[in-house]
Amino acid sequence: MKGTDMDLIRLNKYLSEQGVCSRREADRLVEAGLVTVDGRVAKTGEKVTGQEKILCRNRPVGGSGSGRVEPVLLVVNKPRGVVCTASNKDRAPNVVELVNYPARIYPVGRLDKDSEGLLLMTNQGDLANRIIHAGSLHEKEYLVSVDKPFDAVFLRRMQEGVELVELGETTRPCKVRPEGKQTFRIVLTQGLNRQIRRMCEALGYRVVALRRERIMNIRLGRLRTGDFRKVTPKEWEELKRRLGETAKL
């Protein structure tokens, strides 16, 4: 039976809540004709109850009832050499296979193949978008080692912002603190492609080790490389406060 307006949910939101992808990506999949509802090709903007037979790329999505799944948010310590994608085109181990979680989850943002440390994984597309949104100024903290000793000028230039000619961008001012002659801690509020590596290269240095240790209030702590854990209730409450989120996890 067709649901009432109160029972209906936009298809892109439904796919996001099921952990398939973000809303934006869901719209692209629908436009490409890769989503079907009860055997017919889905239409952009349509609403569903979650009780329909919904396929995305010929794979079933959700189940009966309300169509909601239990939200998941994991803290993962990604090893170096593991990629943040389910694609096999890189011919490298991927983090989805590494975690092997029973629910379908995907990374919140990216951490490049040669980097290690904190990666969040979720089945909630909207949550992922709020965490990584470029205008949100959410902090991410990294421990970085470079190939030679640096000086105060290097730290100041990193902190004030570095022009990345190849991207046509100048990085936002950030916090930088030395941890040794060749190691420093940096806190960013943006996520340009390979940003820290590009910043260092622009100043004549090469990154030899990079580990992300914090995203907003969530810290890597003593989690061993390759392991994962669920966020704690305390972490989730603080994250929710920072995001202005009211939903439960």
How would you describe this structure to a colleague?
There is one protein chain. The protein is of the alpha+beta class and 249 residues long. It has helices at residues 11-17, 23-31, 95-99, 125-132, 152-160, 195-202, 233-243, and strands at 9-10, 35-37, 40-41, 47-48, 54-56, 59-61, 73-78, 106-107, 116-122, 140-146, 163-164, 169-170, 175-178, 183-188, 207-215, 218-219, 228-230. Strands 7, 8, 9, 10, 13, 14, 15, 16 and 17 form a 9-stranded mixed beta sheet that branches. Strands 3-2-5-6 form a 4-stranded antiparallel beta sheet, with no helix packed on it. Strands 1-4 form a two-stranded antiparallel ribbon. Helix 1 crosses helix 2 (23-31). The radius of gyration is 20 Å and the shape is elongated. Mean pLDDT is 87; it is low at 1-6.
